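Reader question, answered in our methods column.
A reader sent in the components of a multi-part assembly and asked whether the whole thing could be modeled at once rather than chain by chain. We filled in our standard form and ran it. Here is what they sent:
COMPLEX SIZE: two components
ENTRIES:
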Amino acid sequence: MKKLINEPDAVVDEMLAGMVDAHPDHLRRIDGTQVLVRADGPIDGKVGVVSGGGSGHEPTHGGYIGAGMLDGAAAGDVFSSPTGDEFERLVDAVDGGAGVLAVIKNYEGDVMNFETALELQAMEGAETAEVIVNDDVAVEDSLYTSGRRGVCGTILVHKAAGAKAAAGGDLEAVTAVAEKVIDNVGTMGMALTSCVTPEKGEPTFDLGADEIELGIGIHGEPGTERTEVMSADAVTAELTGRVLDDLAIEAGEEVITIVNGMGATPLMELYVVQRALGGILEDAGVDVWDSWVGDYMTSLDMAGVSITVCRLDAELKELLAAPADTPALTVA
Amino acid sequence: MKKLINEPDAVVDEMLAGMVDAHPDHLRRIDGTQVLVRADGPIDGKVGVVSGGGSGHEPTHGGYIGAGMLDGAAAGDVFSSPTGDEFERLVDAVDGGAGVLAVIKNYEGDVMNFETALELQAMEGAETAEVIVNDDVAVEDSLYTSGRRGVCGTILVHKAAGAKAAAGGDLEAVTAVAEKVIDNVGTMGMALTSCVTPEKGEPTFDLGADEIELGIGIHGEPGTERTEVMSADAVTAELTGRVLDDLAIEAGEEVITIVNGMGATPLMELYVVQRALGGILEDAGVDVWDSWVGDYMTSLDMAGVSITVCRLDAELKELLAAPADTPALTVA
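And here is the structure of the entire assembly that came back:
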């Protein structure tokens, strides 16, 4: 294993320190925790929007903290859920008096620990709500979940819910927007290589020099299908077809897409995939409102890509186009 | 070799198609070329700022096209200079009547072909100027250069010169700003792994499982020193020390830094490096005005990092903070 780290068990702490060092105007770390919150928060009278989960998916989640997106995020150890206590510190820290929405990716540890934290905060008088993101169309149940996994579509939930909260929406309205994204978004991913965790130091699954894996998760879970190396066009057709089928997207509908790198994929390759995706959607008569290409939700040093499609309406377009000012995403 | 591509000799064409597909509001491709220009250009009465070079460094250069940065960029084949003809098409396309500044990274092919294009355009009446970026402190001469190589510091030249042009600066003033950045910026990089070109399909240099290479370039050139694997802190100290020495940065001076991923480096690791860099500069009494962390100038699928430091004054801070709206960099 070769990585730019120091001690493997210090990597999350040092990463968070680096994030705050680079983005002091955006991020503040709650002392003694792995929780990052808005430097200028909590915002009085605004619904707080929070997320969190294991580390290794950067810029998810801390990179999306800032005006118009998240108010804070708890970082667990690599691929491990934050504790209930850390989630509780997070919810408490961002509560500006209008309630807090927790955006939870569907993993058993995240759901259990986040829900425990929300219950405890509610007992202390906080107004709280939750949504569970489950956009991965590759699997029905998985190694770490009952039901589908939450992956890159989560970023669109952050953006839309964050914009609604910034516009003064109440907790019910912010939650409704988050649910609308979840109802209309799907993602599927693939890997050229496994990721290597700092602690283990070796691949979490083995792939031959001429093999790729479809339907992978973001925690080194093996995928649903192993095949010989395919062209970028063939990979894109496979992933996109599965997502469009799941969402039952039809000609004339309007969508946003994300071509997301898994951590070690050059941008050159992501744009080759984008070209194929654009062609498929054009042939299908689907209207593309916007296309994001880059590393939005990664899996350490995995080489691969996921494709996200989300059906849009006028409200979601307005929210996704609204200003955001975060380390990883700026919408002017 | 496993890559998300189709035919290796189509990768640049397909990447450019994907860039335009994703960013139609920003980018337009000149038919029959590998030249991208601003979708809303040329801008009447504004100095055009252009760059270009071999592909494989994405988002450099096309990703920096847009208001406040570049007016256009020519993309060569992977690690190959664009032709003189393509550079000439570029310069001609962005000329809004106030002249064109070419920002050239110091590689023999780029310099020769860009200068030929500028001479031919000047003969047709265009007002042109050039600057040559040579920020790599690792080597004095190299495989592809007389003098130092141009690497990630180039992005700061694009930003400052682009902002000066957007603010109405004339060709002389825009050129002077570019020269000021070049005089005050240094970069040094290292690799955990070699890159693999689509055409060759194998590493351009061999590194053992316990070796790293310091002083690498961005075209798969071997570095200046091969060592055993070092910690992130030790790597950061080595690179930063070399850059600070070269620039003779002293306590009390103000700088901007870039921790740049080489293409396959997870953001988690870049932030671990950022933490170390911040500590070194604090200990040295250097005042950090801003810190950029991410993939700004890559070398295909190389895992590694480069560190850029640029000394600032009031003018450069104002220009770097000015608005920019490009696919890869948004300053609101």
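What stands out: The first helix of chain B runs from residue 11 to 22. The CA atoms of residues 140 and 148 of chain B lie 5 Å apart.
Send us your own complexes using the same form.
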